[in-house]
């Protein structure tokens, strides 16, 4: 019996190791290619490790495109979207989870129905609105449409509903207002869910390509995803520079996830406990 259990554990760990290697191979290939020369990156059969590490590929990325400006633009857009989503989605989720008002369930179902609509469907109407407002080629056009999320509202509402309502009643006895309960009780207890929403929003904003491409015209307003795509041409692609730029763009996301993965996993695990 003990041997069977040990064999099952060994088999499970072996499958997990194989799966991990399969998942991490594209990333390792990206790192390897970023240090190769263009000729070596096109070599057949391909080489796993570069014969000579070309660290200047990373410097050439900054020389070929306005990479620093793209990085700054992406950071501004990501930080703004994340901050607004945490504020607006948490306020909406608190209202749906704790307050009573006419039509609450109907409004919530209507918001959830937005999740069933592909983002591509609303791009043309959104573009027309941005054009009428005179926001084309500005940060407003990129940031404002992404400051609220139906998914974020749903995620936080589910988490807020798992918080005991007795805490609200105790706070009301002490003279706490609805906003005071939200600020002093709900938010401090909801750190895992807030971190989870922040990670989802950061990833979506950092990797956003199509919407910034549509609403921006000038090179000064471009973001990382668009800038990196310029290394991919119609007849030839500079793979070493493409991979070097992609690696520098990916690094912040990896660091953020490594530091916040504890809260992220906890938030996902607890957000569906009650509802």
Automatic annotation (TrEMBL):
<feature type="domain" description="ABC transmembrane type-1">
    <location>
        <begin position="71"/>
        <end position="260"/>
    </location>
</feature>
<feature type="transmembrane region" description="Helical">
    <location>
        <begin position="181"/>
        <end position="206"/>
    </location>
</feature>
<keyword id="KW-0812">Transmembrane</keyword>
<dbReference type="InterPro" id="IPR035906">
    <property type="entry name" value="MetI-like_sf"/>
</dbReference>
<feature type="transmembrane region" description="Helical">
    <location>
        <begin position="139"/>
        <end position="160"/>
    </location>
</feature>
<dbReference type="InterPro" id="IPR000515">
    <property type="entry name" value="MetI-like"/>
</dbReference>
<keyword id="KW-0472">Membrane</keyword>
<keyword id="KW-1003">Cell membrane</keyword>
<dbReference type="Pfam" id="PF00528">
    <property type="entry name" value="BPD_transp_1"/>
</dbReference>
<feature type="transmembrane region" description="Helical">
    <location>
        <begin position="70"/>
        <end position="94"/>
    </location>
</feature>
<comment type="similarity">
    <text>Belongs to the binding-protein-dependent transport system permease family.</text>
</comment>
<protein>
    <submittedName>
        <fullName>Carbohydrate ABC transporter permease</fullName>
    </submittedName>
</protein>
<feature type="transmembrane region" description="Helical">
    <location>
        <begin position="12"/>
        <end position="32"/>
    </location>
</feature>
<keyword id="KW-1133">Transmembrane helix</keyword>
<feature type="transmembrane region" description="Helical">
    <location>
        <begin position="106"/>
        <end position="127"/>
    </location>
</feature>
<keyword id="KW-0813">Transport</keyword>
<feature type="transmembrane region" description="Helical">
    <location>
        <begin position="241"/>
        <end position="260"/>
    </location>
</feature>
């Amino acid at each position: 019996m003990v041997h069977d259990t040990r064999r099952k554990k060994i088999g499970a760990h072996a499958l997990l190791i194989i799966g991990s290697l399969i998942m991490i191979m594209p990333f390792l290939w990206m790192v390897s290619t970023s240090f190769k020369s263009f000729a070596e990156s096109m070599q057949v059969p391909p080489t796993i490790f570069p014969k000579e590490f070309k660290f200047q590929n990373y410097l050439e990325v900054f020389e070929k495109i306005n990479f620093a400006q793209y990085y700054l633009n992406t950071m501004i857009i990501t930080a703004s979207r994340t901050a607004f989503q945490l504020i607006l989605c948490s306020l909406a989720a608190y209202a749906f989870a704790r307050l009573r008002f006419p039509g609450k369930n109907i409004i919530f179902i209507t918001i959830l129905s937005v999740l069933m609509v592909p983002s591509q469907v609303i791009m043309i109407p959104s573009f027309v609105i941005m054009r009428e407002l005179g926001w084309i080629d500005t940060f407003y056009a990129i940031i404002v449409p992404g400051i609220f999320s139906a998914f974020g509202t749903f995620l936080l509402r589910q988490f807020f509903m798992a918080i005991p309502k007795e805490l609200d009643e105790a706070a009301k006895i002490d003279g706490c207002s609805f906003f005071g309960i939200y600020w002093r009780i709900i938010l401090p207890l909801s750190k895992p869910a807030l971190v989870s929403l922040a990670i989802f929003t950061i990833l979506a904003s950092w990797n956003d390509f199509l919407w910034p491409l549509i609403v921006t015209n000038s090179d000064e307003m471009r973001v990382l995803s668009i800038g990196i795509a310029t290394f991919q041409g119609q007849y030839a692609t500079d793979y070493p520079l493409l991979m070097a730029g992609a690696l520098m763009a990916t690094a912040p996301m990896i660091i953020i996830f490594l530091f916040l993965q504890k809260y992220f996993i906890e938030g996902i695990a607890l957000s569906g406990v009650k509802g």
